[in-house]
Amino acid sequence: ISATFQDIVRSITGKATISPKNIEEAVEQIKYALLEADVHVRVVRRFVNQTIQEATGERVLKSVTPGQQFVKILYDKLVSFLGDERQDLTLKGPDTLSIILLAGLQGSGKTTTAAKLALHLKKKGRRPLLVAADLARPAAIDQLETLGASIDVPVYTDRSQKDPRAVVKRALSHAKRQAVDTLIVDTAGRHQVDRELMDELSRLVRDLSPDEALLVADAMTGQTAVDVAKAFNEAVGITGVVLTKFDSDTRGGAALSIRTITGAPIKFIGVGEKVDDLEPFYPDRIASRILGMGDVVTLVEKARELTEAEEAEKLQEKIKKATFTLEDYLEQFQKIKKMGSLQKLAELVPGMEAALGGQEIDEKAIRREEAIILSMTPAERRNPRIIGPSRKKRIARGSGTSVYEVNRLLKNFEKTRLMMKKMLKQKGMQQSMPTSW
Ligand code: GDP
Ligand code: MG
């Protein structure tokens, strides 16, 4: 995709803000690129719509182009669609037996993944037992035995059984007598999703109520993998996905689709045929892979930090020169809301934290204070001293608040302004060198 994304960036370079108009062409290209990466049509539509919505109106940072910034927005959105945080297996403590069930189509990589997971858990100090519950082909049992031997993990087999449930039941009681804390159950697959397979699986899941019912899906099969994931999730209720054959030329489109359509977290990716070719699934890394533009993302992140620091510096100047007005105060509210946390702002503006006295930001209170300031005339905002009783009444009426609240806001503002000034002075005295930020 990377070549296409380069074009996208070029097409919106030089624009001041991101608008639906100037990203129109880019959006078309993104749709195309995502479809090319084998992302499901419905996912593409949902993804693109949300990205446009979020990107529109965003002010472009000084040292980057709108195109670059748009790539960053795309990237963030991708990470969020891919699940944000890494999700590990959720297993019980080592004193209680945990069960992992693997399901999927034939050839998707279940047996290989069973061994990979066994090795992964063994390295973490757990004691797994592989259970051969794929009774469709005798060769499947041999395959698991060979793999188990190669990683020195025991394999439970029972060639006399025809019903996988019976095998698992026996494996369970076997496990209780052995030093085993995790059962990894390899099951049979079919070429296609069919009733019989699903019935067998739901019976197994009902019997076992596994800690993890993982779908093993072949990333190379793109659209099919998505349909399979959907069918398995509806029939069995999966707790997560292992995407295999990620080492092939795939760009991760299947990951985006599967995650979005099933909502089930992708927990691991298979990156080769060997038993240690298993990696945790990191949404941010996969997003970079889909976009192929990790360096742009870093650039924009840096630019954003710079801009924030610059704005803080300007604010500091204003406070020093006592030109910090209610307008700046209002701007702070808007920033707090945008940044989502007061903590971040407080880090940038000395005195801010103390002025707020550790008080929690109350969204509603901020909105009311905002309304009050917005009801003032520019002159009043610049010089609140001119606000006498009749002006206060007018402002209260205009903002749908009370004179009491207007008074409180003015007091808060004055307190903040003084506190900031004081803090800045102290800071200046402590440091003999002028601070650069
Ligand atoms: P099952 O039928 O679902 O049990 O699938 P298998 O575990 O037997 O795997 C089918 C084929 O896919 C085998 O040749 C495996 O070596 C291969 N395979 C499984 N996982 C991966 C992977 O992550 N990458 C690659 N390249 N091959 C894989
Ligand atoms: Mg198999």
UniProtKB/TrEMBL annotation:
<protein>
    <recommendedName>
        <fullName>Signal recognition particle protein</fullName>
        <ecNumber>3.6.5.4</ecNumber>
    </recommendedName>
</protein>
<feature type="binding site">
    <location>
        <begin position="244"/>
        <end position="247"/>
    </location>
    <ligand>
        <name>GTP</name>
    </ligand>
</feature>
<keyword id="KW-0694">RNA-binding</keyword>
<comment type="subunit">
    <text>Part of the signal recognition particle protein translocation system, which is composed of SRP and FtsY.</text>
</comment>
<dbReference type="InterPro" id="IPR042101">
    <property type="entry name" value="SRP54_N_sf"/>
</dbReference>
<dbReference type="InterPro" id="IPR000897">
    <property type="entry name" value="SRP54_GTPase_dom"/>
</dbReference>
<feature type="binding site">
    <location>
        <begin position="104"/>
        <end position="111"/>
    </location>
    <ligand>
        <name>GTP</name>
    </ligand>
</feature>
<keyword id="KW-0687">Ribonucleoprotein</keyword>
<keyword id="KW-0342">GTP-binding</keyword>
<dbReference type="GO" id="GO:0048500">
    <property type="term" value="C:signal recognition particle"/>
</dbReference>
<dbReference type="InterPro" id="IPR036891">
    <property type="entry name" value="Signal_recog_part_SRP54_M_sf"/>
</dbReference>
<comment type="function">
    <text>Involved in targeting and insertion of nascent membrane proteins into the cytoplasmic membrane. Binds to the hydrophobic signal sequence of the ribosome-nascent chain (RNC) as it emerges from the ribosomes. The SRP-RNC complex is then targeted to the cytoplasmic membrane where it interacts with the SRP receptor FtsY.</text>
</comment>
<dbReference type="Pfam" id="PF02978">
    <property type="entry name" value="SRP_SPB"/>
</dbReference>
<keyword id="KW-0547">Nucleotide-binding</keyword>
<dbReference type="Pfam" id="PF00448">
    <property type="entry name" value="SRP54"/>
</dbReference>
<dbReference type="GO" id="GO:0003924">
    <property type="term" value="F:GTPase activity"/>
</dbReference>
<keyword id="KW-0733">Signal recognition particle</keyword>
<dbReference type="GO" id="GO:0008312">
    <property type="term" value="F:7S RNA binding"/>
</dbReference>
<dbReference type="InterPro" id="IPR003593">
    <property type="entry name" value="AAA+_ATPase"/>
</dbReference>
<keyword id="KW-0378">Hydrolase</keyword>
<dbReference type="Pfam" id="PF02881">
    <property type="entry name" value="SRP54_N"/>
</dbReference>
<dbReference type="InterPro" id="IPR027417">
    <property type="entry name" value="P-loop_NTPase"/>
</dbReference>
<feature type="domain" description="SRP54-type proteins GTP-binding">
    <location>
        <begin position="265"/>
        <end position="278"/>
    </location>
</feature>
<dbReference type="InterPro" id="IPR022941">
    <property type="entry name" value="SRP54"/>
</dbReference>
<dbReference type="InterPro" id="IPR013822">
    <property type="entry name" value="Signal_recog_particl_SRP54_hlx"/>
</dbReference>
<feature type="binding site">
    <location>
        <begin position="186"/>
        <end position="190"/>
    </location>
    <ligand>
        <name>GTP</name>
    </ligand>
</feature>
<dbReference type="InterPro" id="IPR004125">
    <property type="entry name" value="Signal_recog_particle_SRP54_M"/>
</dbReference>
<dbReference type="GO" id="GO:0006614">
    <property type="term" value="P:SRP-dependent cotranslational protein targeting to membrane"/>
</dbReference>
<comment type="similarity">
    <text>Belongs to the GTP-binding SRP family. SRP54 subfamily.</text>
</comment>
<dbReference type="InterPro" id="IPR004780">
    <property type="entry name" value="SRP"/>
</dbReference>
<dbReference type="GO" id="GO:0005525">
    <property type="term" value="F:GTP binding"/>
</dbReference>
<keyword id="KW-0963">Cytoplasm</keyword>
